[in-house]
What we know:
By secondary structure, this protein is mainly α. The protein is 41% helix and 5% strand. The strands form five sheets. Strands 1-5 form a two-stranded antiparallel sheet. A two-stranded antiparallel sheet has the order 2-3. A two-stranded antiparallel ribbon has the order 4-10. β6 and β7 form a beta hairpin. α9 packs antiparallel against α10 and α10 runs parallel beside α17. The longest helix is centred in the N-terminal third of the chain and has 29 residues. It is globular, with a radius of gyration of 23 Å.
Amino acid sequence: MKIDIKHFALAAAGATMLLTSCIGDLDTLPLNPSDSTSETVYGKDENGYLAGLTKLYFNFVSNDTTDLQVSDGGASELIRAFWTIQEVTADACKCAWENDAWVRAMNTDTWSDADNDATYAVYVRTLQGIAYVNEYLRQTASDKLSDRGVSSELAARIQSFRAEARFLRAYFYWIALDVFGDVPFTTETSPFGGGVNPKQASRKDVFDYCISELTDLASDESAMPAARSNYPRADKGAVNGLLARMYLNAEVYAGTPMWTEAKSACEAIFGMGYSLCPEYSDLFRGDNGENADALKEIIFGVAYDAEQTQSYGGTSYLTLAAIAATDVTAEQKINGVNNGWAGIRVPYEYVQKYFNARNADYTTGEYTVSDKRGGMFYIKGRQESMNDALYVFLNGWTCLKFNNIPHDMTNDEFLATAASKAYSDIDFPMIRLGEIYLIYAEACMNLGQANTALPKLKELTDRAGVSAPSSVTADYLLEERARELMWEGHRRTDLIRYGKFTTPSFLWTYKGGTFTGQGFDDYMKIFAIPSSELASNPELHQNPGYGNATDK
C-alpha cells in the first residue's frame, strides 16, 4: 500500500473507539496501562497523527473482523462488499459460489431482511469508519493540540489531515445512504460513550450534510490538499469528484435534481490538470498507482500492494475470483496472480448487448469486438450460457479488466514474478476522469445543453476506437456507462437513477430469480438494516418493505 503501512499498526493500537453497536463510541481507557490510547499515541510529533489518518484510509481495505459478525473476513472488506452490492445485484456480474447465502441473494435479487454478510459488512464498515473519523477529529481539535504543546507548523499540517478525514467521512456516508437510505448519524460533536445510541437521520438530511461538508472542503479557504498533489490520499480533485457523483444522484437521494451543480463540479475538475489515460486498459493494471499516464486520470484511488496490503477484497478479489485455478499454469498467469477462485464472471448477454461481441470460439478463445474496452474477456474453455448453470463458473465470460501484469510487460515477461503474487498490486480507482466526463454529459443533457458534452464523449469513444455519438440520449449514456465503468462499482446506482433496477421492462440474466429475468419490488432499491443493529439500538427503524419494518 502506498500509504506507509507501519502507521496502521500504531493507529490500530491507539484506537479507543470500541463499538457497542456500529457507531456507539466508548471513551473508555483499557484496563491494562501498557495498552496504547489516544492519550499516548497523539503527542507533539507528526507520526501519531499520520498513524490515526492511515487508520481511516485502511478502513476501506481492512479484513479485520473484531467488531463484525461475519463468516468470511475477506468478503467483509468494504470495497469488496460494496462492489458486490453494486455489481452482482445487477447485469454485469454473477457469482458461482452457491454455498454462500449472500451470493444467492445478490445473484437473483431475492434478499430479504434476513442478515446478509455483504450488506452487513457495508453497514458496519461505513459506520465504523465514521466513528473513527469522529474520534480522530476530536483528538486533533485545536484545544487538544494546544494542550499537548503541538507546534504551530505541525498544527497547520494537521489541519490538512483533518480535511482528509472529513472527506473520508463524507465518502463513508455516501456509501451508507446509497445502500441503506436513512442511517445513524453522528459527527465529532455528537454525544458518545456507554449507553449512547446514535439517532437515525433521513437520507435527505445525510445527503445535505455531505454536500455542505464537501462544498466547504472544495473551497479556496479549505486546508484540503491541492488536486493531483496527494495520491493515493484524497485531495480537492477527490472532493469535487464525490460532489459531482452526489449531485448526479440528488433526485434519488433527496428528491430534487441538481444538474447545474453536477455540471459545475465536473467543470471544476476539468480545470485541475487531469486528462484521460491514453490506454484504457492501463487504468487497471498492476502498476496503475505508479504509471504517470494512469495517474493523470485517477482522481481518487485505494492503494493495494501484494506485499504490504494483503487483502482478500478489492482488486485481489477482482483478479483472483475472476479466474479458475485451472487458468493458472506454469506457462500462463493470465492476469498476473498465482491462483484462481472461480467466482465472478460476466453473463454473455451483457457482453453481447453492450460490446457486440461476435464470432466467439470457445475452443481457441478468440472473438471479435470493435470496442477496445471489450477486449478484456477470456473465453477459452468456457460455455456461453448460464441457463441452468448460474453456479457453474465456466459458464459465462471471464473478465480480465483488473490485470496485475504491469502495463508495459507481457505475460511471459511477468511470469516469474506472477508466480509469487497471491494478492494484487492494482489500485482500485474510486473516482476517475472517465466517470466525470459521463456525469458531465448527463448533467448537460438534463439541462438542455447536450451538445456541450459531445467533445468529452468523443474523447472516450476515440480511446475505445469506436464512433462518437452524434447526439446525447439517456439510453446512450446508460449504455456507455455500462461499457466505460463496467465492474467499477456503479451499476446498481446507475440503474436506480434511470428507473431500470426493479422494473420488468428492463431485464437481465437472473434478474429477480429467473434466467430470462423478471421485475422485483421497488422497496428493494435500498437494503434492510441488519437485525443485530436494530436489536442493539432502539433509535433505529427498519426500512419500508422489509419484514420487521416499523413506522418512522
